[in-house]
Write a structure and sequence with these properties.
Elements lengths: L1 H13 L2 E7 L3 E8 L4 E8 L3 E3 L2 E3 L2 H23 L8 E6 L5 E3 L18 H11 L8 H10 L10 E3 L1 H10 L3 E3 H4 L5 E2 L4 E2 L1 H10 L9 H4 L2 E3 L10 H7 L15 E2 H8 L7 E6 L3 E6 L12 E4 L5 E7 L4 H16 L6 H11 L11 E3 L16 E3 L8 H12 L1 H13 L6 E6 L7 H10 L3 E4 L6 H14 L6 H9 L5 E4 L3 H16 L1 H10 L3
Parallel strand pairs: 1-6, 6-13, 9-12, 14-20, 20-21
Antiparallel strand pairs: 1-2, 2-3, 4-5, 7-8, 10-11, 14-15, 15-17, 16-17, 18-19, 21-22
Protein name: ATPase
Keywords: Kinase, Transferase
GO molecular function: kinase activity
Length: 536
């Protein structure tokens, strides 16, 4: 313990550390790691998006205030635990929610309030660009926001000098460099894997599409420069150091890695950047990211194509609904328990009820539910109505009830994943899963393994999150061996010896899920009828 403490103090003093700061949807988090990739200290700041003039946004003051607060809390933890004032850091990285729209003029003025990924205001632009490029352009992508602004003839457009993401903006503010990591860039505009840059043909197609508007810029002029993981993307300026550390102890000149999106840092944090691997993130929504060996043969609106931080293509399946309905039902069971005079902890309730699903019929006994609190793009529902339905012949018991709700939490995700596996023959060697559902051992892993028909692992580091992931990318820039790939760096240095609990798909579960998903698809008409007729 003393040796470890001495090692950490030396790492802080000598600047053998890496700092990652990530801007999530509800929290800004700063994580400082040593050269063994262990967390030394962290700090955070809670924040919320605002709805202003019809757009979901975060204001610039909150961005800076939150950043300073998270850094300050991390810095104070170091001083409290190790008695050292941070004056230098080995490397820094910024990451944030992907996509969205931040447009600036040549003076650095933000031309319209930051439009986040959450805004569903670009449907016309997204569809037109998808048709034009023959490449799926989701509504949340930056290019969809830009083109929708053009269709709307917004007044700020002639003044644009830069459009970027939140991570790109923060990086620019602290380095003066208009840079972006390739993973984050792939949520702005399609990437060409062969050139590791924006797709040149599509850039030309976009310029032709808007040529009659007469704007004084071409698309490539206003996009940030793309960087690959391992490259240095700038240094902390004197002004940047003073903004980051209000106590003004931090010195400028610290190298920064390319700014990345939260999807990329999630891949790093779960060691899922190698081809034929993937990760599944489970929460209110659920998404799977599978690193592809080759491009898909056609356009699928259910599949987003992005990249890893080192530029490999990734198929992303995102479903809006996952655990909310399970949480609601467990809340009801807790109410019943308390009404019977039995107080029960939620962790125990989850453990007992989720484990009942392992006693169920393979397909859930003919039961059906939809946990749609909101619409679901994959299944074509614009709105949602949580719904549970059964026939008189269904085997209605607690085990089947719980299995059905676990199956349906991953129903839309499975439909998207089946496209990758069945229509595109995408091979998956392993999947890393993370999220609160996996706090109950085995059950969630077995269900996801059945949905994916692939091995699913939980790692001891899965809870570290994206701020740790971008700190790892900053460390990779400084500490990799010459020509060492990101995959090898993660495998051999960061994750070597990390506990990993792997579960292979059970044929019982796989067959049962296949039967369930056919019932799920047929029942979508029932869910649509509920949306159409159940007006509260």
């Amino acid at each position: 313990m003393k040796t470890n403490r001495a090692h950490i103090k030396q790492a802080i003093t000598k600047g053998e550390t890496s700092l990652g700061i990530e801007f999530g949807s509800t929290r800004i988090k700063a994580v400082l790691i040593d050269n063994r990739f262990e967390t030394i200290a962290s700090g955070s700041y809670e924040w919320e998006n605002l709805l202003e003039d019809g757009f979901w946004t975060y204001n610039l003051l909150d961005i800076i205030t939150g950043l300073q607060a998270a850094y300050s809390e991390m810095k104070q933890e170091v001083e409290r635990n190790y008695g050292i004032i941070i004056r230098t850091i080995g490397s820094i990285g910024f990451s944030a929610m992907m996509h969205g729209y931040m447009a600036f003029d040549h003076t650095g003025e933000l031309l319209v309030p930051f439009r986040t990924w959450r805004n569903a205001t670009t449907s016309i632009a997204a569809k037109e660009l998808t048709d034009k490029f023959q490449f799926n352009i989701p509504e949340r992508w930056s290019i969809a926001h830009l083109y929708q602004a053009i269709l709307n003839e917004e007044k700020h457009l002639p003044r644009i000098d830069l459009i970027t993401t939140l991570a790109g903006y923060i990086h620019w503010l602290f380095t003066g460099n208009k840079a972006i990591g390739i993973g984050d860039a792939s949520g702005m505009f399609p990437i060409d894997e062969s050139t590791q840059d924006y797709n040149e043909l599509m850039v030309e197609q976009f310029d032709e599409l808007i040529a009659n508007k007469g704007y004084p810029w071409k698309l490539k002029d206003i996009l940030p420069k793309v960087y690959i993981s391992g490259e240095q993307a700038g240094e902390l300026t004197e002004i940047g150091a003073k903004i980051l550390d209000k106590s003004k102890n931090l010195q400028p000149g610290i190298p920064l890695c390319p700014p990345e999106g939260d999807a990329g840092t999630g891949m790093v944090a779960t060691n899922s950047v190698r081809k034929r691997t993937g990760n599944v993130s489970v929460g209110t929504s659920v998404f799977a990211m599978i690193v592809l060996e080759k491009e898909l043969s056609k356009v699928y609106p259910e599949i987003d194509l992005v990249t890893t931080p080192n530029g490999s293509p990734v198929g992303m399946v995102h479903a809006n609904n996952c655990s909310s309905d399970i949480n609601a039902w467990l809340g009801l069971f807790r109410e019943f328990s308390e009404a019977m005079g039995q107080k029960v902890e939620m962790n125990k309730l989850f453990h007992v009820l989720l484990n009942k699903a392992l006693e169920a019929d393979p397909d859930g006994g003919g039961l059906l539910s939809y946990g749609y609190f909101s619409g679901e793009n994959i299944t074509g529902l614009e709105k949602g109505r949580p719904l549970f339905v059964r026939s008189p012949e269904s085997n209605f018991n607690l085990a089947n009830f719980m299995r059905t709700h676990l199956f349906t939490a991953f129903g839309a995700l499975k439909i998207g994943m089946d496209i990758l596996k069945d229509k595109e023959n995408v091979a998956i060697d392993s999947i890393l899963a993370h999220g609160g559902l996996f706090k109950t051992p085995v059950v969630g892993q077995k269900i996801v393994a059945a949905a994916m028909n692939a091995p699913v692992s939980i790692m001891a580091t899965a809870g570290e999150g994206g701020a740790w992931g971008i700190a790892i990318l900053a460390s990779y820039m400084m500490n990799r061996d010459q020509k060492e790939s990101l995959e090898d760096f993660l495998d051999k240095k960061v994750f070597e010896g990390v506990d990993r609990q792997e579960i292979y798909p059970d044929s019982f579960d796989v067959k049962g899920f296949e039967e369930f998903i056919e019932r799920y698809k047929k029942g979508l008409a029932v869910e649509q009828a509920a949306v159409d007729n159940l007006i509260l």
